[in-house]
Amino acid sequence: MTTDILILTVYFICVAYVLYQIALAQEAQRDDQVDIHLNQEALMAQLAAQLQQQGRAEAFAAEVLPSGDKPLDGSPFLRLQLPNPRQPEADVETIDMQVLPQGMRPLQPPIKALDVRILNRSQTIQVYIDWDRSSITRLNNQAQRVIRLSNTMPNELFQPQVQSVINPGQLFSVAVTSESAFGRSGEAQSLEPQGPLIDLEKAIKLPQPLQIYSLKLLVWLKPVTAPDEDAVRLLLPFMFDLEVLPDLPAVPILRWIVSR
Question: Domain range spanning residue 26?
């Protein structure tokens, strides 16, 4: 009898453990557990200071809008507006910039890269992105060089990256990560990202509030026919804070069972 009770006890413990692990997996995959916010105040303050230093504060208008339409994501984005150099009386030129991910999300999957989207709605302005002078920061505030992901990655990361050019009327979208995320794999020893950019399960254990990542993007704005010295250079700080949502269950298995 004692042996039977022991076997049943071990059996129920094993079943409970399996159910608990299933519940944890369900919670991580289905429930929004964190919210990632764009630090709009820091972005606007630094942008205004840079425009003031270049004597462009009166010519430029900038604002962070709460939600974008396709092809942008429905998350906050930066809108720059500047006059048409050819036709000052015409409507202003507009350029939209967005960095993702933002908003509520589960802990899994981890964040593998950041998505940069630029929609050049203007008729006369070119947008240049200088990747080698841009930087990415994650968790520990240590800045690293931004690496643009592509199908043809270089053999060595020290090679300079070609600037991206977004001409009038074009949409640009690219994934970027940090230099330290790369490693060599396979017999060819090709460079590939070896892990996630941000592990959210580790991030939520750090002291809050937490700046989870930031992307300082160096962009040039230049009328198509203007010389390079007339370009406006902006280091745009897209900084993001992590908020752990308060409804994380202490015992996930209970919430999972109740929801069924």
Answer: 1-32+249-260
